[in-house]
Amino acid sequence: MKIFIVGGGIAGLSIAWRLAQAGAEVEVLERGIAGRGATWASAGMIAPGAELGAESSAMAAFAERARAAWPSFAADVEAASGMPVYYKECGCLLVAATAERAATLQAAACPDSGAVWLTREELLHREPLLDASLLGALQIATDAQVDNRALAEALRAAAMKAGARLRERCSVRSVLIDKGRVSGVIADDGVIAGDIVVLSGGAWMGLLEGMDADVVPPVQPVKGQMAACEPPPGTVLPQSLIWSESIYLVPRHNRLFIGATVENAGFDTSVTHEARDWLLDAAARVIPSLRSWRVAELWAGLRPRTPDHAPVLGTTSIDGLLVAGGQFRNGILFAPVVGETISRAILQNSMSPDLSAFDPKRFAKSA
């Protein structure tokens, strides 16, 4: 049985690694360089507390399951690749600049689940770089981060060491279907025969030719621009992830990552002066000294988003064709469970009923 993974981001690499570990014949077909798309452009946050709060939904349950899997997933990737991924349980601070936001965050405090309100004094004692006018913050101790770029390289190495093949700069144009079943793919260099195809191409999933809209779920690109700043020598970066109402700040190594815009701009990945200025201004309202820091990098990535903002995971109406996409802002967070879910669906022909909310067929006109 030959399995093709179309797309070599964190989802595709995680799936390929788990399949290869189980002895499957698997090949990743990546239109660019594996791990250098949305995975590379992200901030590496593993933050269901900040992203979803106390929300009760299938998405929140999936996020919590993924968060719980991360410590062992990170350790497994490091052991398999021999490379560090810098997983860190640093916690998160949702800061309040207004009385209204302070009241909302205080109401969300739940010490039993690790969500604690910090007064202004407690916040500034913990993070002295923050603006002294902030009213406080909700601390979520369970949120974490990973170096997404290191993770991409480590997953790539782990998958290949396990026996997966990787074909980069290989654009897949369409999926071959014979009598209702997958028989391979059509790539730039011709037809490649195979038995199972997993579509994990992120924002590019919808560009496949000749695929019925009822088969391939609607996934659209959402542009996000980010910046990274380096502080003056001797400056101690914040210890936690920090969220204001408009941006997030991620301290890692010697940089502070600032993100991110949310733009419906098609497949444009250019960076703009307007976005840079907006990011830096919003960040300086949280850390005033940042105005004098050096801007080390500016970049943009494309998040894959479905109409209901939830992922698409599982089988399609075509036998042998599966989908793993639409993770939007949570591709890094979801990775451990996406790899486990899709590999199990292929190897054991089993999908958890808990994931029915993410069925790719939910967007079909007949659904």
Describe the fold and architecture.
With 367 residues, this protein is α/β, with parallel strands linked by helices. The chain folds into two domains: 2-83 and 148-218 and 308-363, 3-Layer(bba) Sandwich (FAD/NAD(P)-binding domain), CATH 3.50.50.60; 92-143 and 221-305, 2-Layer Sandwich (D-Amino Acid Oxidase, Chain A, domain 2), CATH 3.30.9. The chain contains nine helices and 19 strands. An eight-stranded mixed beta sheet has the order 5-6-4-14-15-16-13-17. The longest helix has 24 residues, at 58-81.
Blueprint (SSEs and pairs):
Layout (H helix, E strand, L loop, with lengths): L1 E5 L3 H12 L3 E5 L8 H4 L3 E2 L1 H5 L5 H24 L10 E5 L2 H10 L6 E5 H7 L9 E5 L3 E2 L2 H14 L3 E3 L4 E7 L2 E7 L2 E4 L2 E4 L20 E11 L10 E3 L4 E5 L2 E5 L13 H12 L9 E12 L6 E4 L5 E5 L5 H17 L20
Parallel strand pairs: 1-2, 1-12, 2-8, 4-14, 12-19
Antiparallel strand pairs: 3-7, 4-6, 5-6, 9-10, 10-11, 13-16, 13-17, 14-15, 15-16, 18-19
Helix pairs in contact: 1-7, 1-9, 4-7, 4-9
Could you give a short description of this structure?
The chain is α/β, with parallel strands linked by helices and 367 residues long.
Biggest sheet details: 8 strands, mixed
| Spatial arrangement of strands, main beta sheet | 5-6-4-14-15-16-13-17
Give a count of the beta strands, DSSP E runs of length 2 or more. Answer: 19
Predict the CATH topology of the largest domain. FAD/NAD(P)-binding domain
Work out the count of structural domains: 2
* Overall geometric form: elongated
State Rg: 21 Å
Q: What would you call the structural class?
A: alpha/beta
Number of helices: 9
- Distance from first to last alpha carbon: 30 Å
Query: What's the CATH class label of the largest domain?
Result: Alpha Beta
* Uncertain stretches of 5 or more adjacent residues: none
Q: Give the CATH superfamily of the largest domain.
A: FAD/NAD(P)-binding domain
Strand-residue proportion? 25-35%
